[in-house]
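Here we describe the complex-level prediction in full. Unlike the single-chain runs in Section 2.1, the two entities below were treated as one system.
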Amino acid sequence: MCVDADRWSPIYTTETTPAGSVLSTIDQDAAIWIADLSLQPRFGCKGRGVAEWLGAQDFIVPASANSWVMTGESTILRLGDSEFLIESTADVIDKIKSFPREAAVYPVLRQDCAIELGGTQVENLLRQVCSMHFGALNLSAQPVVLTSMIGVSVIILPKQNQGRPHFRVWADNTYGFYLWNTLRGIGNELGGCQVCLVRDSGYQ
Amino acid sequence: MLKPYRLPPMEGEWIDRDKSVIFKFEGKPFCGFEGDTMTSALWASGQRFLGRSFKYHRPRGILSLANHDVNVMMQWGQHLNVRADVTALASQMQVNAVNTTGGLEKDQSRIFNHLSSLLPVGFYYKAFHSKKLFPYWERLFRNITGLGKVDLETPRIFTPKDYDFCSVAVIGAGPSGLAAALAAAEQGADTLLIDENPQCGGSGHYQRGGDNALWHATKQLLEKVEAHPLIRVLTSTVAAGYYADHWLALVSERKMTKLRAKSVVFATGAFEQPAVFGNNDLPGVMLGSAAQRLMYRFAVRPAQRAVVLLANDDGYRLALDLKAHGVEVAAMVDMRPEGAAQNPFSKSLTDQGIPLYTGCCVYEALPAKEDHVVGMARVASFSDGKADLATVREIQCDGIIMSVGWAPAANLLYQANTQMRYTDALEQFVPGELAPGIFACGRVNGLYNPDARLRDGQRAGSAAAAYLGFGKALEVDIAPGATCPSFPWPMVSHPQGKNFVDFDEDLQLKDFENAVQEGFDNIELLKRFTTNGMGPSQGKHSNMNALRILGRLTGQRPDAVGTTTARPFFHPIPLSHLAGRGFHPERRTPVHPRHVALNAFFMRAGEWLRPEYYARAGCNRSACIQEEVAAVRASVGLIDVGTLGKLEVFGPQAVELLERVYVSKYANLKVGMTRYAVMCDEAGVVIDDGVIARLAADHFYFTTTTSGAAQIYRELSRLNAMWRLNCGIVNHTGAFSAMNLAGPKSREVLQQLTAIDLSGGSFPYLAVREGRVAGIPARLMRVGFVGEWGYEIHIPAEYGITLWDAILDAGRPFSIRPFGVEAQRVLRLEKGHVIIGQDTDGLTNPYEAGLGWAIKMDKPFFIGKRSLHILSKQPLRQQLVGFQMPQEYTGPPPQESHLIIHAGEIAGRVTSIAYSQAIDAHIGLALVAPDLALSATSFEIRLTNGGFVTAQITSLPFYDPDQMRQKESTCA
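The structure predicted for the assembly as a whole is:
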């Protein structure tokens, strides 16, 4: 079976990215860098019994709503109280998908457009596209933000790497082209937007 | 070489004398320095006639030099209404004054100045109210008044949208604002200091009184502010609006920023107010603060020989400033009686031989011979608003500089629900009760003494930080000023008028008297009748005087007169800033690249981009659509329906949720089957429809309309939370790709790709099956989407293209055609399928839409049941019917929304119409009056050109009424 992800994730459908300009590594000094992580294997579930069920599958579950944890190669986001998004390796995700559905555990098909944003101007970029005050977040609490960005509902996971902020963003894939192009356009106005190809492993 | 009005280098000046800037004004070349504004550079060059007024086209010069008035507005190419007082000079700039016919000097419209007695306030209300002629007059007046000219070729300017955040926002970076910001930051609050000027310091920079001490103190404070790690400074930024919860609209040259603060300190200062006397608008008559800005910011002499008209101590400090910079002060005219005028400043000036006339006024200004600018001041004794003409003395001068009072810049405070009170000792409104988190300091608080302003700033900044839990509020003693900063009646009657109160709208003192005489004796009515404060200055220099005039004419105190409502924005904002970048979310289905490759012509359906039809060489739009329709009816077609809302509900009470929100029954829906679903609101109005498929006893998958998905999901989630049902709802709209394969050959095409038994017996009409199609896990529903045998196939979005390609490959032997939204509309219309939102409106109930059959009133509860129960016993308001145009009709077909006329009355409207090959005529749906639907066989439709065409009312559906196309025999 042919997987179409290569053909619908934003980095492949955008009409403005010359193939030669895509970096295979992140340029930390770029004004803005943007990476397409839509192909990262992921799994979603919701329901009253999900937290216990994930625990029974040996996942560490974030204790509070709208927070995340990382264990090994898995990142687990708790969205609200009873919904979870898990990103991991294909093996882990395939395994969890194969488990039979249990009472009060409802699968959520995750076909997200997922991108990572960083760079020296990333906070300015976010101020132009989102009304959320990311500077006020306590990153040690590992928060997850469910908000709206340029009119699109998004999940945002803010992180810091050696003092440099970067943000992972998930959105409905049907908005992927619009989201990607708009962010790139604003990034270019802020000093240049470097497109990076970061696949599978993600940017930790 | 120094220009006639350029001063020698000045401490703290904003200009860079090493960088000259050449520009043109009204076609003549001028030269200024970098840092100059257009106005300061022109004034420095001796050009003091800078603009024409809005109504009477009177010559105008500098008034405030502070972005608070619009005496000097320019057109700079496509930039119109550029405020020259504050717009930085740019190299090679070519500017012209706005609102002239034939240029500034020879403006043909200056004749209106001589006709002014025929054009009093409100004359057009009385003279040009004929309904028929009003559009003519409106155009005429629009052409002869007005500001800059819009160039319709101007490209759209995209300005960023922007958000910002801080703990304490301080508006105004004058002495009190600087002190407030520093105090707040010292207590640990991250502070944002905002000022409309390109440099901080405010009046601490330019109101020096011939002494640099205040400037030095302000400079020291500024250095501390700039060095403080918790303070950010935004200059050239106007805080133009305040909204609830401490949202502020910050407007800068390129963008508007929405600032969310946790507390706000308003150190917004005060607007200096003009005196009202004859010809008080001549170029050369300016506010004292404008003269000081000219001197200290731009090193420009405001006049060579000036009369200082004053009524407060600031006026004497102004005279000292003028004298210090070589302006000959011809006289000081103090409007106050003698006793009030005595102070150390006045004494030092009179000791230098400058004449002081107390209890006097400038009765009128007169222009210099053969010039537009002031050449003489006529000074007279002044009492009770009147000049004693017997005492008039004439003083030659080229400038009259006024310092008679202030009005608090309290617009934002009003927007922040501040209760203001009038203080007689100050002749000013000051904040009384402030809302939580709101603080005020400095002149807006009625404090004019420099030391008091600094201390008040400290107090307010400290309190704002303490309000947020940063430190403790400082307790500061602040002594009020000894003298009143504002004169209560700086207005002088003049029989010839031309004593202007509002410079934007050319409103004279007598206009207000006439308005009150006509009964407009309330501040809000007065404003609307006279248009006072409705110009671009928004009353910054006229509201206070208008209030005083009304108070005197009606015998009320200023606080009894009250102020007009100060709505955001109190300062004009470019429309480009309000529009911002323009985010228009756009959704594309996973198969979008394939539509592009197939030459789809796209249309927007809500946020979605959908193929309207697939363009083919040599075929027009209509032919393409008809070919697509024909392919579906004759063989097989494929349409991308990924835009449909796709929701899923799981859990033991999933069926209970559906029973409560849809009008039909689902408890009896068998696993493996689907059922049409109609949703109503509490009023019984149809709001959505779709198909519900039961995949397991506790698991349903259902569709909604394309536009309804997000709202329906949100509403179901809300209801589920409220009802506390044991089920969970998932919105899978974007996660699933969906396509509909339809036509008599659809089964043969699909059977090549799946092992699912597609025979009618095994997979009957309205059944749902799960399995693999082209190796992809899929859900298949056998629905009559377009009235043919067909399958709606739902798969994970990532496989959308794979399935699309596989189906088109498998369908090639059957001449399969992809079809777009327009073909789908024709096909569905032939079947009489209703489009919710198009064939229904915001009041249509299921009975009217012909969907009454779906309602199951024997259910214990569903949303809208009570309303539908009532509606079922009432006559229908309208009814959806089918109609058909005569086959021989060849004229222009009716269009959607065309009216149906019966017995001379509107009896309905067309909701859908299209040409049907199957019927060989235009067919449509219409919402009509029920009696028409019952009794008539035809109705008349009024076309756009006013003509009428007759249509036959027909039964529905138009096509395949016996559902033969769903029979296996037909499909086979």
